[in-house]
Please model this.
Amino acid sequence: MDNLIKAEWFKLRKDRSLWTLIIILTTVSLLYPLLIVFDEGADTVMVIDFYRNSILGGNNYVLRLVPCILAGFFISSEYAIGTMKSIAASGNSRVRIYFAKLIVYSIGAIFISLIFPIVFTGAASVFLHFNGMPGIGYFAGTIGLTILYAVAFASIMAVFATIFTDSGKSIGFMLIFFILFDSILFILSQLNPVLEAVFNYSVFKLFLDIVNVDSVNVPEMIKLVVVPVVTFVAFGILGSILFQKKEIK
Amino acid sequence: MSDYVLKTNSLTKQFKNQIALNKVNLSVKKGSIYGFIGQNGAGKSTFIRLVTGLARPTAGSMELFGYSHGQELNQARKRIGTIIEGPALYPHMTAAENLEAHRLLKGIPGKECVKRTLAIVGLQDTGKKKAKNFSLGMKQRLGIAIALLGDPEFLILDEPINGLDPMGVVEIRELLKKLNQEYGMTILISSHILSELHLLATHYGIIHKGNLLEQLTIEELNKKCQQFLHIKVNNPEKAATIMEKQLSTNDFEVMPDGCMKLFDYVETPGKVSSILVNEGLIIEEFMPMGQNLESYFMNRIGGIHHG
Model:
């Protein structure tokens, strides 16, 4: 497993889609606070408000959409260019191959999902003269949950990327799915109590509560932590089963 | 310890209603170069995909280095180097980076094997050039380099000389011969370039429409492809006596239909015909015959199929 993770890590570091996404998100993170300063003035906006509303709010889209692009290039393209054949024929177990890929892809998704909370916040803090900074506990809590939900979404994206085996199809499908699915699930949850429970305990609803980490009670906090972990494990197992049964062309 | 690196037993693969491989019993002897011959769609790649674990057989079994089940069989695949349906490369990486990715994947310690393997296939000077900018021949070489990483005991190469220029074909042929003769590497190679296979392989398997028609050694093939003079005369017994006494040869066969196959004097047929005529025999048919691997293959699969 160690060698598989090293190989995947080597490939992730060389993945141009990851670097392109990181550069784009970093550029936005550095430039957008300037617009706010020019528009509203440096002393009128508090960093904590900016962090809650603009940074974490914007990161909700980054978290569930941008890693889809990485999944298409980092996972699906391995099938399209034929390198998955070499990997699958290497004598390593399919389960290990899948989890090595998933773990390293999840790290990539974490990088992507942390650019706004860290770089954006850093830049905004400087431009807003560190006015009304978020508490360290709150900041750490949101970062921790962001990591957990990035990993959970990554595990779902990895399943789709394995099924589609074509970068374009994977990215297209996943973007549409992740844009629409929470709304569809919400509508369905109004019709059926079982689906309502599914929606209430799904990452699609709970990731919106990252911003409220300072106001949730203990049972809700446990739910916020456990659900993404269970999602990662469940979709990891589901993906590995699919990958084991898959005939690689 | 088995003499065979690979043995399959009634290996079958069916896709819905189509049988891609039908009860194939194929054996690759340790230390051999096995030429796997078949048309497009004959089942070569399907066979290779089953052996390498990319697909699962519908029925039958296989034995790889003596292992035939589950995790042991999968572990045995670590001793194989493969090119399956073309070289699998990361286009945005250099040759060295491609090898490094596969070195890590295979868990090979030490980076020195990357340089050494690149030198073996003549790609040591490609520097920062990305694989996507390589010529087809360079891509093939890099694919072979990847297959060679970790000094596998068994190389499975699916059309490895496709796209190579004549010089490249010769280099790869010499390389494969060297790997086989000096390092004892067993090689299974599928190719459409039968003349090239004939210069390389020690054993052959002919597959057609999913059925393994025949397996034979180079000696058996050469015997079947041997050049001879096909002679039909009015008196075969007398002709046989003339060949023994006047041409001083026993290297001929009299076939049940009276035709003769003379394996001597292939280069000087005039001498044979003049002696037979001078002895009063009437020559009804007289022609040099024989086959190369290509014509033998075409005959074996039943001629040229259109369609």
Observations:
- The CA atoms of residues 226 and 290 of chain B lie 6 Å apart.
- Chain B touches chain A through 34 residues (CB under 8 Å).
